[in-house]
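Figure S4 source data
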Amino acid sequence: MNLTRRRGAIAFFITLGVCLTALAVTLNITWIHHNGRRLAIDLVGVILFGILIAGVVLNTVFLVREIRRNEQQDSFLNAVTHELKTPIASIRLYLDTLQRRTVDEPQRKKFYNIMRSDTDRLLNTVEQVLKAGELGQRDRDRRRTRVELHPLVAECVATVCSRHHLGPDEINLLDVPGRVRLFVMGNVEDLRTAISNLLDNAVKYSPNGVQVTCRLAIEHYTWVTLSIRDQGLGIQPRELKRIFNRFYRSSSMDRIKIKGTGLGLFLVRTIAQQHGGDVRAISEGLNKGSTMLLRLPLAIGAASPGNTAT
């Protein structure tokens, strides 16, 4: 219902803006036609007309953007509420069961594992929201060290496999050609967040089986690129850039009811830009998988003792 109202409001303001613009053009042409011999008055009229049109267009654009922003924020609040409420309800249910009933040891261990998984999900949601607020702090630049990427990516792969209960072959991290050690200057926690979010997305968008390949490579001698390729749902061409916007949720989610905060890829893009790099998505379309490319500037030179993180 709210979505229908917002779309109706957007259509209304666009229609209103077009009608007002058409009316202004008609009045201006009529006015010039009746006063065609007064050059100075015509010049003033054209200037005022331009100001009027610009005001109408800017007002319409502003209103439409505000409506869309409110819609995205409502979607974000609904998603966060669900991501917080669902694991809490699950944990409470299992705790009540353990308290009221006699449960044998295997079942008890199963309950504990489920509650641990729900706790990890809850913690991940909270960390996503907190990280979105922390990235704007200027003092984060002072906490940068020389980070070796391959061990960091391997650590993130292990964490994601454990979180989603994946087998050892479902996320495959290839060795760097020549076993070259690749370093970047960065905040290790932020880089860990970016890599983990990309891996989480690759897993979540592979509902029919996880088959993810990660590869590190040198680009143009001064850049290192991490590519994460999945065989999942894919991305529509018109969404390849939008998916990195704050609160944006791909239409692919509607087909399999994937939940999330809409902050994951926004955090990846923000972290990449703060490290002097970028991130982009490649996909041939729906059901054809996708590739995420995280590019960062190489840190060239010898590492100082105590200034290397993995």
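Figure S5 source data
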Amino acid sequence: MEINKSNITGVLIRKPSDKIIKYLLNNENINNKRISIIKDEFNYINFKTTIYDYMNYEIKNKNIILKDDLKKIKDSLRIVGLSYLDLDRNINTLSESEKKLLSLALSLLSNPEVLIFLEPFNKLDLRNEKRLMFLLRKIKEKYDKTIIFISTNSNMLYKNTDYLIIYDDKLLKEGSTKELLEDVVFLKKNSLSIPEIVEFTYIAKSKYNVKIDYHSDIRDIIKDIYKHV
């Protein structure tokens, strides 16, 4: 199984499973590296928890050794664009996108080399998904991180990853995201989700003999339709 930090790697699964995490952690390219796993749901200590309380709790709970805890907390929030937040603010008052960014800030406290996201854009609208994706690519390039997305959502993986691993209790296939998620026959055979934009193109090509190419952006498909139809 190839995991290259120059790519954003996606893992397509048919249903949620803890097995995939164990499988990834055995990979030679990330084994023995500092790893943070960012879950799709944000869980905090109690209803009255503040941002500072939670971040400080994470530092103590994970035995993270820092020269200056407060500086590290502020730096992590700055990197993800949350430096404007009051550290005494109750986490319960944050928006879903702010909670998602706070989860990322929490993961950065230990200075991980590998960031593994479970359903990274869950509960985010398209605008905030694009903002988070831009931020993650920036973090990957600036801080030399390996980024892995695990998801049942083939639409998201098709748009946002470069390399893909297809896993269903075992490795089924791996390679270029574009090539694997455009293999509609294989995806159907294994009961895996097909990106909507790929399925549309597949039907247009196979049933109606429309000469259009596969694209991850609907605007490119529209251009093809105007050009060939």
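The first strand starts at residue 8 and ends at 13. The radius of gyration is 20 Å.
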